[in-house]
């Protein structure tokens, strides 16, 4: 099988249409996870939903690295990608009953997705001992994780969820072995790919608003939908206004193994809690629109407030990893969101959503005003005098 390397010319680092097509499957997977948690708004359902998201995330992240190294739109690679997409679709279809009758189906489909990824990487690494070594190290954790999912498919209850958690740990730990040595990276493309997945996750929160507003369009539902959009816009702004730009430039400027470790830590690892936080917010907003005048139950309240807090916490760690500084205002809002959870279960859901929207927009407004000069330098570097 002929594999063509990605063109790493700086001006040509673009996400391909096939990669965007692949990501559409992940859109459906995210929707399925949101629905899974919404249908079982218990602590067990929350944990299981996050486990499913984590496993699906590592499948997506694996292909983000793969298509960052090879051109997925050429030759037989395109056909293998289509096969992986079909398997990912089947795995996503199995999500609603992934801890029940469809557990084995999910494991089989997921195994195909991951094995296809390793096979393509192995072909791409022919003649490159460093890359083949990196693939072998990653494959160890992935293989163990796949095996554990097959074991879990024969179990149920807490033991089954526990095996899933161990599988996720092995999958995530595989990227740590070797400290990033041997991988190949096109920095601009890698950053853009992860930025697009954040947009996809934010888009899921908009979908949740639409699904949640299937009841009569009362004044409360309309207000809740508008507030939900405010929350989604604040989540988008928090990432794309400055953070994504600074992170991409930092990744471009870093070289060698340090760049590979930064890509792994900042994007593969820390974007997962960002996406998880957005999905949890989507669950909370969906539940809010269904019962705007009633208090949220414990799990939806944690999803709405805690999801926003998790998203901001991931941003705080993202900044610490990239520029070694602490974002104190985001830390403060994170603490306030968590502290608000006991109050959220007593207030009408609409009031809780309004509070979350107020905290997030207050944060965005403060940062835009307080750091306006620095923000302008980041967003318009060519206009700054030398």
Question: Secondary structure elements and their pairing?
Answer:
Layout: H1 17-39, H2 43-69, H3 75-93, H4 103-124, H5 129-152, H6 157-173, H7 187-212, H8 219-240, H9 243-253, H10 256-269, H11 271-290, H12 298-323, H13 328-344, H14 349-370, H15 372-379
Helix pairs in contact: 1-2, 1-3, 1-7, 1-11, 2-4, 2-6, 3-4, 4-5, 5-6, 7-8, 7-9, 7-11, 8-11, 8-14, 9-10, 9-12, 10-12, 11-12, 12-13, 12-14, 13-14
Would you mind describing this structure in some detail?
It is a single chain. Helices cover 77% and strands 0% of the residues. The protein has helices spanning 17-39, 43-69, 75-93, 103-124, 129-152, 157-173, 187-212, 219-240, 243-253, 256-269, 271-290, 298-323, 328-344, 349-370, 372-379. The protein folds into two domains: 1-184; 192-380, I/LWEQ domain, CATH 1.20.1410. α1 runs parallel beside α7, α2 (43-69) runs parallel beside α6 and α11 packs antiparallel against α12 (298-323). It contains 15 helices and no strands. It has 386 residues and is an all-alpha fold. 47% of the residues are buried.
């Amino acid at each position: 099988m002929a594999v063509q390397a990605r063109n790493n010319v700086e001006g040509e680092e673009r996400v391909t249409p096939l990669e965007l097509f692949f990501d559409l499957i992940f859109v459906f997977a995210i929707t399925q996870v949101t629905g899974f948690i919404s249908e079982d708004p218990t602590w067990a359902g929350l944990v299981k939903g996050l486990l499913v998201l984590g496993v699906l995330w590592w499948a997506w992240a694996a292909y983000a690295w793969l298509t960052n190294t090879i051109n997925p739109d050429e030759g037989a690679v395109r056909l293998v990608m289509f096969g992986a997409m079909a398997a990912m679709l089947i795995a996503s279809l199995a999500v609603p009953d992934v801890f029940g009758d469809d557990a084995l189906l999910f494991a089989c489909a997921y195994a195909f997705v991951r094995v296809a990824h390793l096979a393509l990487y192995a072909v791409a690494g022919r003649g490159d001992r460093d890359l083949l070594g990196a693939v072998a190290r990653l494959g160890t954790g992935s293989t163990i994780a796949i095996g554990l999912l097959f074991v879990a498919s024969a179990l149920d209850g807490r033991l089954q969820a526990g095996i899933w958690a161990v599988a996720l740990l092995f999958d995530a730990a595989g990227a740590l072995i070797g400290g990033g040595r041997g991988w190949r990276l096109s920095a601009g493309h890698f950053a853009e790919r992860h930025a697009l997945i954040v947009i996809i996750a934010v888009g899921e929160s908009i979908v949740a608003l639409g699904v949640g507003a299937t009841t009569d369009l009362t004044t409360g539902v309309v207000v809740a939908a508008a507030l939900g959009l405010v929350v989604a816009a604040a989540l988008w702004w928090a990432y794309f206004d400055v953070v994504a730009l600074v992170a991409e430039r930092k990744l471009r400027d870093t070289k060698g193994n340090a760049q590979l470790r930064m890509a792994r830590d900042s994007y593969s690892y820390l974007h997962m809690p960002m996406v998880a936080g957005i999905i949890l917010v989507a669950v909370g907003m969906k539940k809010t629109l269904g019962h705007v005048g009633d208090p949220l139950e414990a799990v939806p309240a944690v999803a709405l407030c805690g999801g926003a807090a998790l998203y901001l916490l991931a941003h705080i760690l993202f900044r610490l990893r990239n520029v070694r500084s602490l974002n104190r205002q985001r830390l403060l809002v994170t603490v306030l969101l968590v502290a608000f959870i006991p109050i959220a279960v007593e207030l009408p859901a609409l009031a809780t959503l309004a509070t979350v929207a107020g905290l997030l927009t207050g944060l965005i407004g403060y940062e835009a005003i307080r750091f306006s000069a620095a923000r302008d330098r980041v967003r318009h570097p060519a206009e700054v005098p030398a």
